[in-house]
Amino acid sequence: MLLEKRTAVCLDIGGTFIKYGLLTEDGELSNFKKQKTNKNGTDGLIGQVIEIVKELIIQSDENQITGIGISSAGQVNHKKGNILFATDNLPGWTGIDIKSIIENHFKLRCCIDNDVNCAALGEMYFGNAKGLEDFVCITIGTGIGGAIVKDSKLIHGYVGSAGEVGHMIIKAGGRRCNCGNRGCYEQYASASALKRDIIEKLGMSYLTPDNGFKLLITDYQTDQKLRNIMNGYIKYVSMGIINLLHLFNPAAVIIGGFVSEYDFLLKKISENVYQKAMPEFTRDLMIFPTLLDNKAALFGVSTYIFKEIQ
């Protein structure tokens, strides 16, 4: 396939799947695929990433490839290009200098950042956050990630780890988190946490054949036991959002991942936030889902290649 525009090879490495594709500088996505993340330690995951990049380069006109963008779960030093910390969702990923590995292997420029930072950039340049200068983005999936944008710039923090909202402590002495602490936000408000609660309290009947689960508004309305679980979940998701509002006073909260797939769930969470947050913080607040769905991080990491974001 001949590509006439500058193109980036883009990967989004998550705890469950790696999503990847080719993106042009004006936001045209092609060759989008996903595969399950290799859980066999450092060599297994690095090998998988290298094979994916090879596959995408073969599918493109190599002369048009401007660089390789990698979005990754975990704490990332985006300037140095190494993984500062990753939980057990990505075994062997902590400490890996993935930028140097990829650049040495392919002789192409590589940029890397945390997945939610990338998702926020994707929404800011191509999605629902166009025109917004101050917003918070959270993604709810296997864990919970966050990104803070102030004056149209990401807040990276001193070592690049700002936005780890999934590890805000919201319940002292609570559930053990795989980060080592107890009571972290993602132990109560992630999709994994909700799935665990449903299985523990209602059994396996809500699971789909692929071991996922599908919530229906009719189930929420008619099943009192499920509604009790869901109301507790809504409370915890809202609690984290309210904390972020009171800390950063954003114009908008953009929610990606699991919650954004269910209109009724997003509505209930929004109602709870508007009801319980301090009034001045919600007076003009917008809460809405990502426009780019599970592809936002791919779009965002491409901007590092094309726009020289620092």
Look at the structure and name the CATH superfamily of the largest domain. ATPase, nucleotide binding domain
CATH architecture of the largest domain: 2-Layer Sandwich
Low-confidence sequence ranges:
none
Largest sheet, order of strands side by side?
3-2-1-4-7
- What's the overall geometry? globular
**Beta-strand fraction estimate:** 15-25%
Major β-sheet annotation: 5 strands, mixed
Topology:
Layout: E1 7-13, E2 17-24, E3 29-36, H1 41-58, E4 65-72, E5 75-77, E6 82-85, H2 98-106, E7 110-114, H3 115-126, E8 135-140, E9 144-150, E10 153-154, H4 186-189, H5 191-202, H6 217-222, H7 224-248, E11 252-257, H8 263-276, H9 279-282, E12 286-289, H10 296-307
Parallel strand pairs: 1-4, 4-7, 8-11, 11-12
Antiparallel strand pairs: 1-2, 2-3, 5-6, 8-9, 9-10
Which descriptors would you attach to this protein?
310 residues; alpha/beta; Nucleotidyltransferase, domain 5; 2 domains; five-stranded mixed sheet; 10 helices; 22% strand; globular
Describe the structure.
The chain is α/β, with parallel strands linked by helices and 310 residues long. It has 2 domains: 127 residues, Nucleotidyltransferase, domain 5, CATH 3.30.420; 160 residues, ATPase, nucleotide binding domain (Nucleotidyltransferase, domain 5). The protein contains 10 helices and 12 strands. The protein has a 5-stranded mixed β-sheet, with helices on both faces. A 5-stranded mixed β-sheet has the order 10-9-8-11-12, sandwiched between helices. A hairpin with a 3-residue loop joins strand 8 and strand 9. The two termini are 32 Å apart. The model has no long low-confidence stretch (mean pLDDT 91).
